[in-house]
Amino acid sequence: MLVIVCYDVNTEDRAGRRRLRRVAKVCESTGQRVQKSVFECQVTLAQMDLLERRLLAEVNLDSDCLRLYRMADTRGCEVREYGRFKATDFEDPLVL
């Protein structure tokens, strides 16, 4: 399934800047960055649960915001892209 992760971390202090880096590292380990604070992750249900737990361990729920959008059937999900970035299509064959 496709999961969209969006976050906004309060970086007014040093701890917030550290949290921002840690949240980004968790997301980078699972998916691809499509905007500064938005990631697309192709995961199983178990991987999504793990991703959610790892992210919740990093954010401060009193000052940060975390949103996860679960797209259960990517075939029914339409994504329109504009601009320079072109996402990797995980459904197509990967050629190395």
From TrEMBL:
Top-level enzyme category: hydrolase
Pfam families: CRISPR_Cas2 (PF09827)
EC number(s) per entry: 3.1.-.-
GO MF annotation terms: endonuclease activity
This protein's record includes keyword Isomerase: no
CDD domains with a match to the protein in the record: Cas2_I_II_III (cd09725)
Binding site for Mg(2+): D8
PANTHER family: CRISPR-ASSOCIATED ENDORIBONUCLEASE CAS2 (PTHR34405), CRISPR-ASSOCIATED ENDORIBONUCLEASE CAS2 3 (PTHR34405:SF3)
Subunit structure: Homodimer, forms a heterotetramer with a Cas1 homodimer.
Job description of the protein: CRISPR (clustered regularly interspaced short palindromic repeat), is an adaptive immune system that provides protection against mobile genetic elements (viruses, transposable elements and conjugative plasmids). CRISPR clusters contain sequences complementary to antecedent mobile elements and target invading nucleic acids. CRISPR clusters are transcribed and processed into CRISPR RNA (crRNA). Functions as a ssRNA-specific endoribonuclease. Involved in the integration of spacer DNA into the CRISPR cassette.
Family: Belongs to the CRISPR-associated endoribonuclease Cas2 protein family.
The protein's name in its UniProt record: CRISPR-associated endoribonuclease Cas2
Species this protein is from: Rubrivivax benzoatilyticus
